[in-house]
Design a protein that fits this description.
The complex is a heterotrimer of chains A (262), B (355) and C (293). By secondary structure, chain A is α/β, with parallel strands linked by helices. Chain A is built from ten helices and ten strands. In chain A, a hairpin with a 2-residue loop joins strand 9 and strand 10. In chain A, helix 3 runs parallel beside helix 6. In chain C, a hairpin with a 2-residue loop joins strand 1 and strand 2. In chain C, helix 3 crosses helix 8. The termini of chain C are far apart. The chains are: A alpha/beta (262), B mainly alpha (355), C mainly alpha (293).
Amino acid sequence: MAESRHLGDIILKIDHISLSFGGIKALVDISFQVRRGEFLAIIGPNGAGKSSMLNVINGVYHPQTGTVTYKGETRHHMPPHRAAELGIGRTFQNIALFKGMTVLDNIKTGRSLKIKPNFLMNAIWFGPARREELEHRRKVEEIIDFLRLEDIRRTPVGMLPYGLQKRVELGRALAAEPDLLLLDEPMAGMNIEEKQAMCRFALDVNDEFGTTVVLIEHDMGVVMDISDRVVVLDYGRKIADGTPDEVRQNPEVIKAYLGVGH
Amino acid sequence: MIYRETGQYKSNYGADEQIFPIRQDRIGVMIILALAYLVVPFIGNDYWFSAILIPFLVLSLAAIGLNLLTGYAGQLSLGSAGFMAVGAFAAYNFMLRIEGMPFLLGFILAGLSAAAVGIVFGLPSLRVKGFYLAAATLASQFFIEWVLTKFPWFTNYSASGVITAQKMVLFGYAFDTPVSRYVLTLVIVTLLALVAKNLVRTRTGRDWMAIRDMDVAAEVIGIPMLKTKLLAFAISSFYLGVAGALWAYCYLGTVEPQAFELTRSFQLLFIIIIGGMGTIVGAFFGAAFIVFFPIFLNLFTSTVFAGQLDPGMLSHLEQFVFGSLIIFFLIVEPLGLARLWQLGKQKLRLWPFPH
Amino acid sequence: MLFFIEVLIGGLLAGVMYSLVALGFVLIYKASGVLNFAQGSMVLFAALSFVSILAMGVPFWLALLLTLAIMVLLGVVIEKVVLRPLVNQPQITLFMATIGLSILIEALGQMIWGSQVHGLDLGINDIPFNFYGVFISQFDLFAAGCAAVLVAGLSLFFHKTKIGRALRAVADDHQAAMSVGIPLKHVWTVVWAAAGFVALVAGLLWGSRLGVQFALTLVVLKALPVLILGGFTSVPGAIVGGLIIGATEKLAEVFIGPYFGGGIENWFPYALALVFLLIRPDGLFGEKHIERV
C-alpha cells in the first residue's frame, strides 16, 4: 500500500540539526526529508532523541545549528505558535491535555486559531461569535464522530482512562486540520487493541485527509507495517533512513536494538 | 422527578450551546432574576439593601473578575483589591474633573482605567509564573495603595484621604435611596455576569483555560501567550474596577484607599475558593457565603453563649472558621460550592432512583 | 559618607531579620515544594506563645523549651492535617491552602493567648554603640549573630546528619528519594518541625523589636521579595537576598523616598525583586530548570 499512494513534493526538510542541553548532546547533525502525504516513523531506543526531534520541528526547542525548511520556508528557529499557524499539529508523549476541560472543549480549543471573533464579539455572543461557535462545533463533532468519542464529549478529560485521553489528544491536534501531524509515541502504554485502534486512526488521517504524518515510536514492530519510511535514531544520531524492509535489514539498526554480540 | 432532561431533545447545535441547555435551569434562573428584580425591591428594607444585598452583589462582581484571571486563566493574583481601588478613584476623578460626565460612562472609564493598570502589572506574567507571579501581584497591591495615599491629587486634596462619591443622576432620576442603588447594582452585575459567561464559553475562555491547564500545549496549538494573558489581566481588572466604583458609589458613598487593602484581596480570593474556581456562579455562592456567614455566626454564638463572647473573640472565631473552610474546600472539593451544587443537581436528575 | 555607611549597615542588619523569616520558607519549599504563606503567622504564634508562657511566671529557658515543643507540635499537625491530603495537587492549590492556614493560625493564636500587644525583652540593650563614628545597633548585631548561628546549624544539620541528607535527596527528587527507601512522610514532618523552630527564633527577635502583636504576621510580606531575589530553594539565597533587600530598601527610603513623600518601603522591595526577576527568572541562586514535553 505504501507504493500505491502518491507522494507529493517535500513538505519538511531537516538540515544538519544539532541540539544539546548543557553538555548533553540530544541531537547530532540530523538531516532527513518528509514528502507531502508521507507516513514517516522515527524510531529508536529510549533516549535516542526522538521527542527532541519533534520539539525542534515545531519550535519548542531551539537547535544550536542547522535549519528546518517547512513548506519552502527555511528557518533556524520558528516559535511554536508560528508552527501552529503554518499547519503543524502535535500530540505529546506524556499526555498534555487541558485537564479541567471537557473532551468537547479540548477539541474545540484545538481549533482556536480558526475561530476569528475577538473578545468583544464573544462578550456579546449574538452575531459573529454565535455563528462561528456553531459552525466550528459542527467541525468538532465530525472529529468526535471520526474518533468515536460521542458518548464522552461532556466528560472532563482528567476523568478518562489513559487510552481515551490519547485519542482525545489526537482529536485536539486534528481539530486544527494540520498539514503535518507530529505524533509523539501515541501508542505508548496501550494494550494491543488500543494500539491497533490508534494505528487505524493514524492511517485513516493519512489516507482520508492526506495529512502528512511523522510518528515516533520506540517499538519497532508496530510501525513497520504502517509507515512508508522509517528513520532510526540512536544516541542522537541518525543511523538509518529507508523503507521498513531496508531498515529491518540494516546491521546498525539490529545492533542498536539488540546490542552487540547477537 | 421534576429536574429531568428526558424529552428535551436537541436537534441543532444552537440549542446545545445555550448558556443553560437544560430547561429546568433556564426556568430556575428566570425565577431568581424575577425575584431579584420584581419582588425583592418591594419587600426588602433599607438595612437589607445597604448592608447585605449591595455588598453581596459588588463582591460577586469583583469575584467574577478575579475568577476570570485566577480561576479561568490560572494566574494567581493577590492584588485584586488594588484594581478595585483604581476603579473607585478613577470614577471619582472622571466625574469630578469632567463637567457633566454621566456616571455610567464614569463607571465604564473606571473599568477601563483599571484594565490599563491591569495590563501594566500583568506584563511580568509573560516572564514569570506561579508564586513568582503571585508575589509580583502583591507589588501592584502595595504600589497602588501607596500612589493613592501619597499623591493627594487623586483624593482631590481631601485632608483625611476620604472621598465622597458624587450623586448619580440618570435622565433626571437620582439614585439616592438604598433600593434604587440596589436595582442599579443589580442591573450592572447581571449584565456583566452575562458577559463573563459569554466570554468563558467561547474561544476567549477556552484559550484562558488552555493556558491554565497546560501552557506548553496551548502554545503549540497556536494560542498567543502574550495576548491571551494580558487580555485576562485586562478584562479581570475591568470587572474589579467597575466593582470598585460600585463599592464607592452604590455601597459606601464615601471611600478611602484603606478600603482596598490586602485583606480585601484575600477576601476575594477566599470567595472564589469557597464558591468555586473557574465558575461564574461560584462567585455568587462564595460572596453570599462570605456576607451571610458572619451574620449567622453572630446569631449562633449569641444564642449559644448568650452574648458572652466579646466582639474580638467573635471576629477571631470567624477567621478561624474561614481558614478551616478554605483548607477544607481545597482538600475535599477544590471546585467549591459550585461543584457541590452541580453534584446536587446530578442527584436530583436521578431522584428518586438510586442510579 | 558616614551617614551613608550608617544607613547601609542599618539596612544590612535589618536585612538579616528578613532573611530569618525567608529561611523558614526555604526550608519547607526545598523539601515539599510548598510556599508556606503561613510562615508569618507561625512567627506570630511562636512569639505570642512565648510571652504568654513567660507571663505565667515560667522561667525563661523553660518557656523557650515549652514554646519550642508547641511550635514543633504545630508544624507536625499542619503537615499531617493540611499538607499530606494535598500531596500531588498543583503548587498554587497548596499555596492557597497555606493562605487559609495563615488566617487560621492567626486566629487560633489570638483566641488562645488573647490579642493585646505584649512587650518582649530578651535582655539585650538596644543602645547603639559607636564604631569609628558609625552608630550600630547592638540588638541588630545580636540578631545577625543569631541568624548566623541558625544558618550554620541548619547547614550542619543538612550536610552531616542522616536525616539532613535524606532531606536533600527529597528536595532533589521525591520519586527517586522514595524509591531508595527514604521515608518521605518522616522527612516532611521533620522539616515542618524545623520550620516551627525557625519561626520561634524569628518570632523572638521580631517580637522584641516590634512588640508581640498582630503586625508580626506582616513580616511574611517582607520575606517574599527576599525569596524572589534569592530563589525559593536556596539558603544562601535567602541570606544574600535579605541583605540586598534590607540595604536597598533603607537606602532608597532615606535617599530617594523623600522625593516621593516617603513610605515606599512597602512596594520598593517588590519592584526591585521584579526588575531582577525579569532579568533572571529563577532568582539569584534558584535552580534553572528545563521544561520537558
